[in-house]
Amino acid sequence: MRISFRRFASVTTRSLVATLALACLTGADWRQFRGNDLTSVVADAKLPTTWSGTDDKTENIGWKAPLPGRGLSGPIVVNGRVYVTASSGFTQDRLHVLCFDQGSGKKLWERQFWATGRTMTHPKTTVASSTPCSDGTRIFAQFSSNDVACLDLDGNLLWYRGLTHDFPNASNSLGMASSPVVVGDTLICQVENDAESFATGLDVNNGASRWKKVRPKRANWTSPVTLKDESGRTQVMLQSSAGIEAIDANSGSKLWEFTKGASTIPSSVVTNGSLLIPSNGLTSVKPSAGSGFELLWNEGKLGPATASPIVLGDKVFTLNSAGVMSAAEVATGKLAWQLRLKGPFTSSPVGSGSHLVIFNEAGLGQVVNVAGEKGEIVSENDIKETILATPALSGNAIFVRSDKHLWKIGG
């Protein structure tokens, strides 16, 4: 069969133009937990500062779509579509991956799988606790049952890996919630618990294990973060109660280690080549291009509770168990101000420009202006549904999942 190169080039050009046009309309992707760069921040977005999703009042709600089950997993946005996971059934053994049109909220497809591992969790959490991630052409969904599904953007199953088959003791009674990250052709998953605790790098093409590392035997709900060092190499930081182990994504080999302990719930955040670790409060380190790091500062008053820290501008922000937001200078850790919000919080904050957005567990979205000498609560916006998941930002809109719905706010 002969193929006209000219015709092929024309079709390819039209497809490329269409893709670029779609990207301009919908805004940048948000491909994993806390965004593409794991910072929870987008630059210069015009996010809504007021909204309402109650039965008697609807304001700034683009759409809301019903979900078949609960989940702590946040949505991701890829190429004009919003993807989210859920779990359902009396024992939460039915796993869902759903896709919605970013503009209209129309459900484009849904795929369901049976869990192959343990589905026991604390009543507050679910089997769908890990935010999926994407490399732009595939969706990777990890569940607390240690099932990992890989689908293309149209929902076709590419491979499925039940990690419990190979690691039968990898579980805990509360459920697991670490979100995977993808680096090149390796998907990094942390499966850390009190028994068979490990991290593994899976080949994105077939799900085969490229490497496996034994990890500290303690329940851990943090997610890996990535950082490019001065040489341009991508380092993957695995956080646990023991501290931080920085590894090479392709081989799993250790690059350096921070051994002063770290939280097992809020994850670290990267900013300008440094890593802010929830350790003894908050600790800032700068990885080197070799095999070590420089300790920059430590501040005991900045310890986060459940929500991960976020950096916006020249300040880092944390939320403690009392719902108090603390702002400190990124360069020194010096405390600038504190502001009491209405908690409790499981979701992590997101932000753009001079505003942070944080949802409490009751569904109250609070917008905080952080540009001045003190933080100011701009608005309180209630949608009256339980929210435990971290939102996604794309196209000047906030995408957040509650126990019952996927919401588009603004945009």
Structure description:
It contains 2 helices and 34 strands. With 411 residues, it is mainly beta. It has one domain (29-410): Methylamine Dehydrogenase, Chain H (7 Propeller), CATH 2.130.10.10. It starts with a helix and ends with a strand. 48% of the residues are buried. Mean pLDDT is 91; it is low at 1-26.
Poorly predicted regions are: 1-26
DSSP summary, beta strand count: 34
Helical content stands at: under 10%
Query: Structural class given helices, strands, pairing?
Result: mainly beta
State the CATH superfamily name: YVTN repeat-like/Quinoprotein amine dehydrogenase
Q: What does the overall shape look like?
A: globular
In CATH, the topology is named Methylamine Dehydrogenase, Chain H
Q: Strands, helices and their partners?
A:
Layout: H1 5-26, E1 52-54, E2 57-59, E3 61-66, E4 76-78, E5 81-88, E6 94-101, E7 107-114, E8 133-134, E9 138-142, E10 147-152, E11 157-162, H2 163-166, E12 181-183, E13 186-191, E14 198-203, E15 209-214, E16 225-228, E17 234-240, E18 243-248, E19 254-258, E20 269-271, E21 274-277, E22 282-287, E23 293-299, E24 310-312, E25 315-319, E26 324-329, E27 335-340, E28 350-352, E29 355-359, E30 364-369, E31 376-382, E32 392-394, E33 397-401, E34 405-410
Antiparallel strand pairs: 1-2, 3-34, 4-5, 5-6, 6-7, 8-9, 9-10, 10-11, 12-13, 13-14, 14-15, 16-17, 17-18, 18-19, 20-21, 21-22, 22-23, 24-25, 25-26, 26-27, 28-29, 29-30, 30-31, 32-33, 33-34
